[in-house]
Amino acid sequence: MHDSRTNPAFLRGMTQSRSVTRRDAFRMAGLSAAGLALAACGVQGKKVAAPQKDAVAEYWAAQKKNGTLRFANWPLYIDKDGKKYPSLDLFTKDTGIQVDYQEAIQDNSTFFGKVQPLLAANNDIGYDLMVLTNGLQLSKAIELGYLVPLDHSKLPNFAANAAPKVKNPTWDPNNTHTIPWTVGLTGIAYNPKYVDEVTSMEDLWNPKYKGKVGMMLDTQEVANFGMFALGIDPDTSGEADWRKAGEKLKQQRDAGLVRKYYENDYVDALARGDVWITMAWSGDIFQQVAEGKDLKFVVPQEGGTIWTDNMCIPKTAQNPVDALTLMDYVYQPKIATMLVEYINYITPVPATKDLVLADAEKATGDDKASLEQIANSPLIYPSEADQAKLRSYKALTSAEEKIFESIFQPVTQG
Amino acid sequence: MKRFAPYLLILPGGLWLVIFLVVPMVFMASVSTQEGDVVNGFVQTFNFSVYGDALVQYQTQFLRSAGYGLVATVISIAMAYPVAYWIAFKGGARKSTYLLLVLLPFFVSFVLRTVSWKFLLADDGILLSPMKSMGLVPDDFHVLQTTTAVIGGLVYNYLPFMILPIYVALERVDPRVVEAAQDLYAAKRSAFTKVVLPLSLPGVFAGVLMTFVPMTADYVNAGILGGPQNTMIGNIIQTKYLVNNDYPTAAALSFTLMAVMLIGIFAYAKALGTENVLEAAAR
């Protein structure tokens, strides 16, 4: 038998407190066999380097079109005619690819939480194409190598028709892994029946609306608003700024102003009268207004948040070529027009504005009015001046994220 | 062969529990003492301090959950006992119909039932709007996003789990023992408190087990009906797992919750007299 004291591996282990502790603890518990198994599953994630050009070409060379596509998107995020999706039907007609369209994503973190273990284990997540907002989860997905790098030679419509602003975003340089589905704004929505005209962030802190203020559960969303209220630019903010913003938000909550920290369901709460004034996403409110609700949306003078929902292909996709085909297909101005006329968020294809106006020419009555409203809306085609007030989510490293969450989560989950 | 027969009986259930309960528990126990994050990976460091830290950080939510669970359980007993009693003794030939009615809400999805509360109780909804215009309640009165709404949701969703075991226990009470008590000059009231009630306690105990534990760990009701000050420990665990991908803290919180509840349940069983109650609850 080998004396473990003279075993070089053991001596090496002595200098690393971790492995000794582990060994001793397992010995005490008498679980050494289980311990071996568990040590193997200690590492759940691993950062990957940026993809090499050859690797991208190699990956795509090995793929072929399968004629089916499983698409995971958010609710109310595509044109719909009864039970049909006209743009997807056109896509099927033009390319022969059948689309299984699912409104599977309600929330970035929950969706990522569900698919992350599958991607880590290299298993199919059930989708070939998904839409994620630029934020913590998308950054993680890119860092962990969960997304297929795109073959831009197969994306000619994107190259030709995408707005320069949406190309080469900070969270995904050169659009290596993602291209936008839509862009949206986070501002303030309110019910003019109960609330005077809103111009400032301070109205969310107005004691008049006690118990009738809605804020968002998403920490990055709520943090940005705390910072805007204090005149802090999220882009250049640091820990000290976050603490101040956290205090500002806590004060709002403890004064009983906040009814709830909402996810997507803030729209219902606003429509039902549970809240009178709330943080809101532009397109949601536009859709409500188009349905005849009397609601207003503003980007407050202190600033608002701009975000992008991005199409991307998970690394375990079964039909990546079909996914890539759709990604490019929706960048045709004709298709992008069909989408924006229904979705009412900012389209990444600026050429749609004239097409929407042309459609308005042809339409009559209510349709004409609503199409004209879309083409002329600053929320769908924002002006340069508006855009200057807008900020993105702060990009956070893993270490920063921990601090950030430890400041803002106790606000929303008191 | 005869010697092995009992083991063969336990084999399917035993294997099931080992694979789907014991193994994951050991895994989660291991995860709870790891350190790291999802991008850089988790490393086993036997960091037991996470238990203390998590308990201190989330003590409010722990206490709140226990409080909600307790109040909701007491309300459930108060509501379930008379219903179970009535079905068991006065239900007559239609007992099974009444039991079906008790279970009927379960044929509707849990989330849908809870969400429908939101429509019913909305500030300008079909219930509160007329009450406000009649001046019965002040204009800023609301039910949603209050403690009342969360506890109400808990009771509503778990009530059948209290009714059924109490009903089963009462159903077993032989009407002749009640007659015997009355023959021995017991008034109706004391026949109930001295005979029926003690005989039905195992049912109440089983009901408490089946409601208090899931109610305390529940996160759907607080998430849908609660407000910023109603976060329960289940919501924190869910956020830690799915939002922050902070698996160690989530696992540590889960184990702490489990330990606290096991201790509570055993203390409760002890107070009621473990032997007959635990056995009876299993019947």
From TrEMBL, chain A:
InterPro entries: SBP, Sperm_putr-bd, TAT_signal
GO BP annotation list: polyamine transport
Entry's Gene Ontology molecular function annotations: polyamine binding
Keyword Transport listed: yes
Keywords assigned by UniProt, alphabetized: Periplasm, Signal, Transport
Signal sequence annotation: none
Subcellular location: Periplasm
GO annotation, cellular component aspect: periplasmic space
SUPFAM superfamilies from the UniProt entry: Periplasmic binding protein-like II (SSF53850)
Highest rank taxon of the organism: Bacteria
PROSITE patterns xrefs: TAT
Principal location: periplasm
Name of protein: Spermidine/putrescine transport system substrate-binding protein
Origin species: Streptosporangium subroseum
UniProtKB/TrEMBL annotation, chain B:
Keywords: Cell membrane, Membrane, Transmembrane, Transmembrane helix, Transport
Bilayer topology term: Multi-pass membrane protein
Chief location bin: membrane
A UniProt-annotated Pfam family: BPD_transp_1
All residue ranges annotated as the ABC transmembrane type-1 domain in the record: 62-268
Similarity comment: family membership: Belongs to the binding-protein-dependent transport system permease family. CysTW subfamily.
Entry protein name: Spermidine/putrescine transport system permease protein
